[in-house]
Amino acid sequence: MPIKRSYADHGDACATAHAMELLGDRWTYPIVRELMLAPKRFSELAEGVRGITPATLTTRLRDLESAGLVERVELPAPARATAYEASPWARELAPIFEALGRWAQASPTRAVDGCGLTPDAMVQSMMTMAPEHGPEQPLELELRLRDDREPNAPAYTYRLLWEQRLQITRGQAPGAEVLEGDSSTLAGVLYEGVPVEELRVHGDEVRRLVAAFAG
């Protein structure tokens, strides 16, 4: 197997070139994206990173650990299992990933027909594409999202809080109204005008969320 040379091996000291080396593999971003909000077990990653084989996922996780982008953690009881999470250094990439996502909207070769989004990808997409001017009054919701493309995939719960800017974190929002459904369907509701009735909605605050994205 040929030795993989870096830009630095060719005398290029550019830090941005090094960054692109770290992130340029096709599997790097989907793996890191799925770990940005909370740790996940190997099986969850295998379901969330579509198309990746277990062998490739094992190799990429090892490489990302070596690069300092992913860390291995032990989940507390009752799970008591090994999991992976984005390192603090990797989480600094969040605003960069958001900027890249907005930039890629103009790509002439981006194909989305027949595609969807995992729950974690969807909520990160929402934070990326949220309008600069949100609802007039603060908005809080609990999102319960699943990926209907994967029948055995777990559902995830998020707290959405939109004040000065939209923030979505893993966890419950006690007392808040609830939006429940498939993450790709939510993408259709917010970005493509799919009727909100395609989701399970508890209360009117969800309509304020849809209206805010509609501008």
UniProtKB/TrEMBL annotation:
<dbReference type="InterPro" id="IPR011991">
    <property type="entry name" value="ArsR-like_HTH"/>
</dbReference>
<dbReference type="GO" id="GO:0003677">
    <property type="term" value="F:DNA binding"/>
</dbReference>
<dbReference type="InterPro" id="IPR002577">
    <property type="entry name" value="HTH_HxlR"/>
</dbReference>
<protein>
    <submittedName>
        <fullName>Transcriptional regulator</fullName>
    </submittedName>
</protein>
<keyword id="KW-0804">Transcription</keyword>
<dbReference type="Pfam" id="PF01638">
    <property type="entry name" value="HxlR"/>
</dbReference>
<dbReference type="InterPro" id="IPR036388">
    <property type="entry name" value="WH-like_DNA-bd_sf"/>
</dbReference>
<keyword id="KW-0238">DNA-binding</keyword>
<feature type="domain" description="HTH hxlR-type">
    <location>
        <begin position="14"/>
        <end position="112"/>
    </location>
</feature>
<keyword id="KW-0805">Transcription regulation</keyword>
<dbReference type="InterPro" id="IPR036390">
    <property type="entry name" value="WH_DNA-bd_sf"/>
</dbReference>
